Amino acid sequence: MTPSEVPKFVVPGEYIGAAEEFVPGPGTYEHGGRIFSSLVGIPTIDPSDRTVRVAGTNSVPTLSEGDVVYARVDELKSAMAICTILSTTESRRGFPGEPEGTVHISKVKDGYTESLTTELAVGDILVAKVLQAHPSIKLTTAPSTLGVISARCQVCHGLMVIGDKGLNCPRCGNREQRKLAQGPRPSVLPS
Ligand SMILES: [Zn+2]
Questions:
Q1: Domain 68-176: what homologous superfamily?
Q2: Which pLDDT band holds residue 84 (cuts at 50, 70, 90)?
């Protein structure tokens, strides 16, 4: 294993490299001939003596570009929706601090969108992809598989039922439109 093959970021208990190749340094421990990280952080290797150490970081990186996440719409502005990122769809791993992400009106669907209010609403749960993770989180719901997976009725706040031609509220009969995610839906939604 060369230094470039050492993981860029590790969590406690994560394998870094073999003890025959590296010397365990601060932030690591050796077990059974293997070196593991004892911290959340970034491993570095001293080329002079092959000591590997992990410099701890205070915060776990939350998201990366390309991640697909569940997000709840908190506020609609004229040009963007402000959302709370709930978890990734893969691991359902939640994020500390409930990071905020935004969907710009140009990224909510393909083509021109005149108003966000026909695509998203406060309280909706989205599946969205991370376009940019730093310094602010920017999301897109434009691909067909992305968009709203759970919607609240804007009249009575009941859960809407997704039909062939949009959304129906079984409680009050209200009909609404959203940019819906197409395809199979997860059986368990984040709360
Ligand atoms: Zn309703």
A1: Nucleic acid-binding proteins (2.40.50.140)
A2: very high
